[in-house]
TrEMBL record:
GO molecular function, one term: adenine phosphoribosyltransferase activity
Summary of the function given for this chain in its UniProt record: Catalyzes a salvage reaction resulting in the formation of AMP, that is energically less costly than de novo synthesis.
Protein name: Adenine phosphoribosyltransferase
The protein's enzyme class: transferase
Organism in which the protein naturally occurs: Qipengyuania xiapuensis
Gene that encodes the chain: apt
Membership in a protein family: Belongs to the purine/pyrimidine phosphoribosyltransferase family.
Known pathway: Purine metabolism; AMP biosynthesis via salvage pathway; AMP from adenine: step 1/1
E.C. numbers: 2.4.2.7
InterPro entries linked to this entry: Ade_phspho_trans, PRTase-like, PRTase_dom, UPRTase/APRTase
Length: 178
């Protein structure tokens, strides 16, 4: 499937979660077997070309795409979780949200020193979670040079913010506006 055909599988829900937001819903994309497979193939091609030795996915939708790409490439999958979700000792980073803060955590034993880790997620908006993920992975000893997304919302500046964090960005598709 072409990127344009894949883009047509993403449903837009107006005024969610608040008025004025155009929510890009990937459940219609993953609900289409051919579309989901083509999306995973696109991501896997780029992750493979990056030389990544492992894939990190951010909770929650990054788990869907990241785990699928990991399985396709037979690479380790590193779940980056919200605070308090892992049953082992963790390391974490706090990061700012528009109205408050949040925390991401991971098992530091899941990364080997110097391991090249690619980040995979469904959507890049402001880049806050992705930059915090890169910081967390680096804190664990990983090298993080690339992040791959299904959707980029370029008007929100996430790609620029990630580049400022020394992470190259590629996205399968873009949607203008919020």
């Amino acid at each position: 499937m072409t990127p344009q055909e894949l883009k047509s599988l993403v449903r837009t829900i107006p005024d969610f979660p608040i008025e004025g937001i155009q929510f890009r819903d990937i459940t219609t994309l993953i609900g289409n077997g051919e579309g989901f497979a083509a999306t995973v193939e696109w991501l896997a091609d780029r992750v493979s070309a990056s030389g990544a030795q492992a894939i990190a996915g951010m909770e929650a939708r990054g788990f869907i795409f990241g785990a699928a790409v990991s399985a396709k490439l037979a690479l380790p999958f590193l779940p980056v979780r919200k605070s308090g979700k892992l049953p082992c000792d963790t390391i974490g980073v706090d990061y700012a949200l528009e109205y408050g803060s949040d925390r991401l955590e991971m098992d530091p034993a899941s990364v080997t020193e110097g391991q090249l880790v690619a980040m995979v997620d469904d959507l890049l908006a402001t880049g806050g979670t992705a930059c915090a993920t890169a910081e967390l992975l680096r804190k664990a000893g990983a090298r993080v040079e690339h992040a791959f997304f299904v959707i980029d919302l370029p008007d929100l500046g996430g790609a620029t913010r990630l580049k400022d964090c020394d992470v190259a960005v590629e996205a399968l598709m873009e949607f203008e506006g919020d």
